Task: inverse folding
């Protein structure tokens, strides 16, 4: 994969309330074709409409069926479930969909879910580099930018990355939005489901980085969108903050 061969299926579908059902169906079919092409690594589906902005405006309906990712190799994806009911994580074509329940976090390994928000990339191989300790997510983003640039990644285009190791602290949430609530804020999204902190857990983080897509797939104060899973498979969700004094491993797409 070249950095930037990323499919972003956000507001591309069903975002204009004035569309007829026939027009919506036509757009859905077009996006499905784009995903197939991107998963075969033949095209860059690089039309980036403003997804997060539209979700914050209240448009949380389904845009994509995750079954269209099933049986495709080397797929890495993250996003939010239909109606903001859960978090999407796909690591190397293996799903870890997390939902907030009264009993805690439930992990589903199937692709039987739909997405309000989805970012995906096909990455056949990764190059790994050690990354030094950092005190905040913002500092980590700066480190990722510096290392990616030094490794020849096109930092003017979005690119995926992985982070592996045992951070001292990782703050997370799993959204469970009340669809009757029409007023969206980032804090309300975090508070709507379950949240918590992991300490010294062996984790893998999937992220997508860009300094040019705030309000599209990163929040307006961030340059990345990150989700995580624990290696034991018991926990996964949206990453809110991370810090460690130990080295972790950063993986970037192999050139």
Result:
């Amino acid at each position: 994969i070249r950095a930037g061969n990323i499919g972003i299926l956000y507001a591309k579908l069903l975002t204009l309330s004035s569309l007829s059902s026939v027009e919506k169906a036509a757009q859905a079919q077009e996006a499905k074709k784009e995903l197939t092409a991107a998963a075969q690594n033949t095209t860059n589906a690089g039309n980036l409409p403003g997804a997060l902005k539209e979700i914050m405006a209240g448009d949380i309906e389904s845009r994509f069926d995750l079954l269209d990712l099933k049986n495709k190799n080397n797929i890495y994806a993250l996003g939010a479930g239909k109606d903001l009911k859960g978090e999407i994580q796909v690591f190397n074509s293996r799903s870890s969909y997390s939902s907030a329940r009264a009993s805690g976090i439930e992990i589903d390994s199937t692709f039987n879910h739909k997405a309000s928000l989805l970012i995906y990339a096909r990455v056949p191989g990764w190059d790994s580099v050690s990354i030094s300790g950092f005190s905040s997510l913002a500092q980590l983003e700066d480190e990722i930018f510096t290392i990616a640039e030094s490794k020849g990644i096109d930092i003017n285009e979005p690119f995926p990355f992985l982070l592996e190791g045992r951070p001292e602290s990782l703050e997370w949430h799993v959204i469970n939005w009340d669809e009757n609530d029409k007023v969206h804020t980032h804090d309300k999204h975090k508070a709507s489901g379950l949240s918590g902190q992991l300490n010294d857990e062996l984790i893998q983080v999937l992220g997508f980085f860009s300094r040019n897509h705030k309000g599209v797939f990163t929040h307006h104060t961030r340059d990345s969108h990150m989700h995580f899973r624990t290696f034991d498979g018991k926990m996964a969700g949206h990453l809110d903050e991370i810090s460690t004094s130990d080295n972790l491993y950063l993986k970037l797409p192999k050139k």
